[in-house]
Amino acid sequence: MPLAARAQEAWPSRPVQMIVAFPPGGQADVTARPTAAALERVFRQPVPVVNRPGAGGILGSASVARAAPDGYTALMALSSLGVLPESERIMGRSPAYTLDQLVPVARITADPTVLLVPAASPWRTLEDFIAAAKQRPGAITYGSAGNYSTLHVAMAMLTGSAGIDLLHVPFQGGGPALTALLAGTLDSLASGPGPALPHVREGRLRALACWGRERIPGFEEVPTFIERGHPEVEFYIWSGVFLPVATPAPVQERWRQALRQACEGDEALKRALDAAGSPLAYQDGEAFRDFFREDTARLVRAVQRIGRVE
């Protein structure tokens, strides 16, 4: 048997890294950790999650794009992955990575974002929030995981539809932005439902509306923007696994099979994501590639509408 074939059959023969391009506590991290634990049971190798934040997700994503294409470094990405190269171009910079350097393997979750405010805030409904923003243009703050991040794009959709002006405060990731909201130093935030759910259940945060076409499990009392008269405000944070594009096809297929096995058969993974309010929405192969292409095109159009952010 040729050496190359034996090497492929033996893969993986050492630990496999899963890179999260954001700090701990955000949506990518919440998804990556139980997914990595499930993959350890499939691969029979350690799958450490490595947080590599910076520049709204650019640094960690670029590190995987440039990694050795041997399958031992993967990226747990969010939908911002497709937006960041375009935002760099808008800002007059050369992108740190391009989408043709990465290959989509599988989508794990796909959650509508939720509009959150501190429970101590005076806004009990979406209409309260919009009315206050109209009374005080530019005074109410909202956080994001960085300029042109998914959380920024989601809020830009709302401000455009509602005709309001909010003050954008970028952070290094969704986790730090959520921490600031909990501390009361931030007025509002678009968040994935997973990180938000425990704080809403504990009464520390209030959810005013969600960006989904339908209400979200765990947030059944929270209306959609569509219900409240904003039909164009629809947005999802999805998480998915990507590899360097030159990763050998048999290794890509091993990843796809392992992720499918984990997502379809690992009850601990399902329970962890359900408990986090971010249920599985598995997709792989051509279906995920088509979804990624279409979603990226839509988000790039939104970023182009935002334009240059100084």
UniProtKB/TrEMBL annotation:
- Entry's Pfam families? TctC
Kindly give the InterPro entries that the UniProt entry links to this protein: BUG, Bug_dom1
Matches recorded under Gene3D superfamilies:
Bordetella uptake gene, domain 1, Periplasmic binding protein-like II
Q: Which domain of life is it from?
A: Bacteria
Q: Which CDD domains match?
A: PBP2_Bug_TTT
Question: Which PANTHER family does the record match to this protein?
Answer: BLR1237 PROTEIN, TRICARBOXYLATE-BINDING PROTEIN
Give the family this protein belongs to, as stated in its UniProt record: Belongs to the UPF0065 (bug) family.
This protein is called Tripartite tricarboxylate transporter substrate binding protein
Q: Which organism is it from?
A: Teichococcus oryzae
Cite the source lineage.
Answer: Bacteria, Pseudomonadati, Pseudomonadota, Alphaproteobacteria, Acetobacterales
